[in-house]
Model the fold of this input.
Amino acid sequence: MKTLGELAHLVGGTLKGDPQTPIRGINALENARPDELSFLTPKHYSQRKDFRCRAAALVVPPSLEHLDYPLLIVDNPLAIFARIAQLFATPPFLAPGIHTTAHIGENVRLEPGVSVGPLAHIGSGSQIAQGCRIYGGVYLGCDVQIGEGSLIYPRVTILDGCQIGNRVIIHSGTVIGSDGFGFAQDELGRHIKIPQMGTVHIDDDVEIGANCTIDRGAFGKTTIQEGTKIDNMVHIAHNVVVGKHCILVAQVGISGSTRLGHHVIMGGQVGVVDHIEIGNRVRVGAKSGVARSVKDGEDISGIPAVPHKEWLRMCASARRLPHFRDELRQMKERIERLEKALQGSEDD
Amino acid sequence: MKTLGELAHLVGGTLKGDPQTPIRGINALENARPDELSFLTPKHYSQRKDFRCRAAALVVPPSLEHLDYPLLIVDNPLAIFARIAQLFATPPFLAPGIHTTAHIGENVRLEPGVSVGPLAHIGSGSQIAQGCRIYGGVYLGCDVQIGEGSLIYPRVTILDGCQIGNRVIIHSGTVIGSDGFGFAQDELGRHIKIPQMGTVHIDDDVEIGANCTIDRGAFGKTTIQEGTKIDNMVHIAHNVVVGKHCILVAQVGISGSTRLGHHVIMGGQVGVVDHIEIGNRVRVGAKSGVARSVKDGEDISGIPAVPHKEWLRMCASARRLPHFRDELRQMKERIERLEKALQGSEDD
Amino acid sequence: MKTLGELAHLVGGTLKGDPQTPIRGINALENARPDELSFLTPKHYSQRKDFRCRAAALVVPPSLEHLDYPLLIVDNPLAIFARIAQLFATPPFLAPGIHTTAHIGENVRLEPGVSVGPLAHIGSGSQIAQGCRIYGGVYLGCDVQIGEGSLIYPRVTILDGCQIGNRVIIHSGTVIGSDGFGFAQDELGRHIKIPQMGTVHIDDDVEIGANCTIDRGAFGKTTIQEGTKIDNMVHIAHNVVVGKHCILVAQVGISGSTRLGHHVIMGGQVGVVDHIEIGNRVRVGAKSGVARSVKDGEDISGIPAVPHKEWLRMCASARRLPHFRDELRQMKERIERLEKALQGSEDD
Done:
């Protein structure tokens, strides 16, 4: 439990209301109870000015400071709300210590405060830093390293030699360190496996969704840099580098050796070819297919992807295509009539 | 073993043939043995009128009642065939009772007739209703509830607090209750996790394929309603509502807070943006990208999706595009000639 | 350790350099150490003629035999390099024998040299041929058969009755033998499950990536033929046949009963409808949607897919679409002026 005053102090906001109000949780506007904090955006407010709620107070931006309700006024309400929510959120239950049904290999180093759930597997030579939570059913191969305070959810698989940073979250079903897809062809068109001898590095504060796959490098490593957040079922091929603070929405696929800059955002189901460079702050519309390198700051969409504004115009024109066809035919007829008429007048 | 007469009685069909014929199974037309039932559709029949088979009898619609073969004549042969097949189908082997290598937490309630396979995990406080089959290697978190007669296949993960209805089938590798993908941005463009505090409700008679992901609500819940069938590798984001009796084919992705009505059908690899409403009985063509709300009963296709018939016309026109280009150039030349000719005649 | 001479002899190449040079591994050009072999393609060489490396020797094609460096000259350098790499690559660690925490069912046959890792599950009646490596956390159902020397990575699920050939590699998280997606509809639009009674056959030398799903046949079987290589998150529906030596890149989905010929190549995120035939040596561009059968040797792309060259022209024209619109308008105006002018001249 916190008081409203404590929270305002913690996040540096302006409080309108009783600082002694107890806050025991957070919730969505319509469900918040009298001891819970909620938040209101100008957009929400404009849609229902007569909003009714029972929340103890609302986190709002300065533009809503006139509301007749207990308020915590801050510049970036969603970010502040997220930070407060983190205070009240608790990770899923995991008993402290190493469960008796977990299998721990030889020469494993588990630092203080590490929890390992039932039926988990930690391969020989692995090192798990303090405060990590390795949930039940996790499979870590040999020589895996995990930094401080990371959360590895049930049934994650991290294969031999992969390195995970601090405060990383990896959701269930995700596979880190599977072989990259690399083959040579012989003279008969048969595929000869190129052994995948590299590894995967996941840097600090990365979050990876459920049922993703991140392949190890052919040589060298596949890298996900600091602060990047990856949704469910995203596929990252061998030797890809994803820069810092990127957002990859669900079902994205990035082909081998492609490099993403920092703060890149990709919508759901985007596909990217191999061996290209995506610049910093590039945004790619959902379902796009990126076939060429992209410069810093560009917004692109489509299959193949073109500048987003051009794609919007292309879509609008495409809907008029059947109409164009009719127009073309009509114009042709008019030209023919003109030609005949002119022929006639010249014949005069 | 059933007799043909028993089956005819059970499904309310008209029997042409010996009701004492023993039926020990069902099979495809070309493989059925003399003690197996098969089925024949008018389409199949029209393709090979000289069909040869050894089946004990065929389930057919009234339009095929003239065939000189033992027949079970019903209005909806495929549905009847499916019902009969269910009589003969047996779920994969699972020894009754709780396997000694399974890990069962505290305060777990297992009703009579529940089976739990080897190396499965059931977290504290979970309740499993009668007749459920929890296969080996399943991971259930804490406070999970599963209704009667549900089948949870090997290596399914259902995380804390999720609720599963009666007669639900969930296939291997699927993750229910992973965190939704919700982040706020701070002033430096770093992503701050919004804790995902909701849950997932799966209603009665839902089937979910292999390696799917269904995220928990940010607040509140993500819901899959009664009778909906989901294929493999489908991603359902936080707070989505999928209505009753929908069909979502493989690799579909539905973004956050979007609501699907009842009897919606989506082809494979469809993507749907967040916060929209898809009406009842909407059908979406494979690979489409749905970017706007859709009214009841509409058929849509394309990226972005438009009415299906319009999309067909757009595709046809698109193939003529390079030709349009030529036509445009030719017409321009003709116009130029006309302009010159007219200039000439006016100069006269 | 091998000598350069031994390797040259083994792969039948021409050696330029000291045959006694010890080779202890392989590596990428920029990272290779003095006891490692690397390779150089003409493309790489043309990009950086002043390449500097420390490798013991380079595998090159005859066109680079003039280089002043120890060389192993062969016709197909990448294939030869892959073969040599396989000599040095070792599969991830797995202790020989059956781990005490593995669960082995009744009547399981494990041939000599089979290793089974911690917390793995092998169902009753399964047969595992010699030299197979069943990693920790693998789940095999009942009556599963696996041929010689296959590698089943941690957390693979292979369900009852599926058959896997020799030297097959299956990566983590993949599910083999989940139910196909087959339903009949009743008069109320409810979906009635058609029990999926078939199985899956994976032939020799197939490799399947991480988090794939391969459904069992409705009746009969789903088949992946010899030498085919499948990337991560690929979905293969019931009763599909994938021919020999195909390449399916990540996130491809193949619908039910479709048949692929031999040496088919599909780019990432391709989708294929059900019940069609894809000929031998067909190549499908990334992200395409294949809606019709395709003849041997065709290259296709697009949604829906058309011949690849036509698709390239369509893409080029599509980018000019907004421009077409302007041109059409301008031409219309010119035609109108012509018509007025001609009207005027005729009025004269």
Remarks:
- The two ends of chain C are 100 Å apart (CA to CA).
- The first helix of chain C runs from residue 4 to 11.
